[in-house]
Fold this sequence. Notes:
Blueprint lengths: L9 E4 L9 H16 L3 E6 L9 H14 L5 E4 L4 H13 L3 E4 L3 H13 L15 H9 L5 E4 L5 E6 L3 E6 L7 E3 L8 H11 L3 E5 L3 H13 L6 E5 L2 E3 L14 H6 L4 H10 L12 H6 L11 E3 L1 H14 L2 H10 L6 H7 L9 H9 L9 H9 L10 H13 L4 H12 L7 H17 L5
Parallel strand pairs: 1-2, 2-3, 9-10, 11-12
Antiparallel strand pairs: 4-5, 5-8, 6-7
Helix pairs in contact: 1-9, 3-6, 6-7, 9-11, 17-18
Amino acid sequence: MTIPPGSRPTLRFAPSPTGRLHIGNARSAVLNALLARANGGRFILRLDDTDRERSREEHAQAIRDDLAWLGLKPDLVVRQSDRFALYDAAVERLKAAGRLYPCYETEDELERRRKRQAARGLPPVYDRAALSLSAEERAALEAQGRRPHWRFLLEHRTVSWDDHVRGPSHIDAASQSDPVLVRADGAYLYTLPSVVDDIDLGVTDVVRGEDHVTNTGVQIQIFEALGAPAPRFGHHNLLTTASGEGLSKRLGHLSLGALREDGMEPLAVAALAVLVGSAQAVRPVESLDELASLIDLGRLSRAPARFDEAELEALNARTLHHLPFAAVAERLAAAGLPADEAFWLAVRGNLSRFADAAQWRRVVDGPVTPSVEDAGFLAEAAALLPPAPWDETSWGAWTERVRQATGRKGKALFMPLRLALTGLDHGPELKALLPLIGEARARARLAGRTA
């Protein structure tokens, strides 16, 4: 199943602001945002903040910051805490339709009932005992101080849908308990507000983790009970750690904020989050538009995908190595470095973090303390330097003259020159660095002077 061409879909990412987003959350966020982008649709950020005790404004702001860092700009941002009137109205409609009914069991009573069912070999499904309570019995329970929680009355039938990822799918609603939609204290659980919001916001496609598959049959029945068509669903495979552990907000080192602070490129994070566990090879991309063109929900694996930090490190470097100057000019200036295309093209292949560019700028501009192994050889090489101005052919012409004059070749020729010119035994190709270093600094360093 794919999003129909020309349908201009509306998709959403709906995190709870109870902690920092991690790389697994990024998978859902990027998939939804880029599917909307690729199909000319809308991308909505919905903050599921109905849990007032755990939701924090700092987490909500961090979510917005993380999405902005990834380059994902929502067309609309809504908060569930602003939308209770919609949920209240939906509750009244479901009550009037006989699809929402009050239950008075305590959690201890429900647990004892589940244990009895298990002992008899029965599934731990709610037995709908509350439906048989008379008005007098309900009144008596409320007189004791009990307040009802409210369950949605499922129709015991098979609910089917064509999943973007999994293909034809179904859930036997008879195997599920009637879900609690409203707690005894009046608080809403996830299910009802999510459905109401999808209806109100015109969400056409819900792309989320496969841990929500079992919720889908319930949600489709709620859509139907509220007189609305259900969106198309797609349940992607989940990310795990390299060791196979499930991701969670407690794994702070895998939060997007931590990855950003560690110098990871947002394009590398987005590419790995989307491409790992798919038919596409994990590879660097130059833009989110390029990444969007690689997304095919129907070719995602059904098995969990392992997120390997070492793979992200390697992809981060490869991403930098491919970034064009136009993509980094503003970042170079913001980092206090000259927005110099020749410099970027010279050093990008040696970066593992963008911040490493500052080291190579220091190598170019100095001061550099040269490492001198053979002063006589360096003096002879300095005498053979070609006249300025220099370009990328100057290094080759110079080292050929030095080779002919000294008989040195290979490492014996090139390493002493690199050590003197850069103070390091590794780095970008000197054919690109030499013109940037310039004649004055090159002669000083060949003479063993800090410059």
